[in-house]
Design brief:
Shape: flat
Distance between the termini: 28 Å
Oligomer: single chain
Number of helices: 6
Helix content: over 70%
Number of domains: 2
Largest sheet: none
Strand content: under 5%
Order of helices and strands: HHHHHH
Number of strands: 0
Structural class: mainly alpha
Length: 117
């Protein structure tokens, strides 16, 4: 199934253009194999938790990608990667903390409620 989605999106790259095709391809290529492994190994609950938390995790991916794009020309690949990973980790901590203290989430918060046990 994942291969079919990837082939469909890459096949549409001619009409979409390389930038849009790259954006649409990144989700299935990274997430579908993970979901398949989780489903096969642990059942549906962990996969559902991943799907629910993907929007939150995309903020850290955005922080990593943007900081890498801006830092790499100035600091080189190694330092840019280290600093970008630190930026992604910081953004992840902020989004988890923000979800934990969201109104109406109770004491455990959104970040804890969706984690598999």
């Amino acid at each position: 199934m994942a291969a079919g989605v990837v082939l469909t999106v890459t096949g549409a790259a001619g009409s979409l253009g390389p930038a849009w095709a790259g954006l649409f391809t990144s989700f299935p290529v990274t997430v579908f194999p993970l979901l398949i492994i989780l489903q096969h190994t642990y059942g549906p609950a962990p996969g559902l938790a991943v799907i629910k938390n993907i929007p939150r995790g995309l903020w850290s991916l955005l922080a990593y990608t943007l900081s890498l794009a801006f830092l790499e020309p100035k600091t080189g690949v190694a330092w840019a990667t280290c600093l970008s990973l630190a930026a992604a980790g910081a953004v992840m901590l902020v989004t988890v903390r923000a979800g934990r203290f969201a109104p109406g989430r109770g004491e455990r918060g959104a970040a804890q409620a969706n984690l598999p046990r």
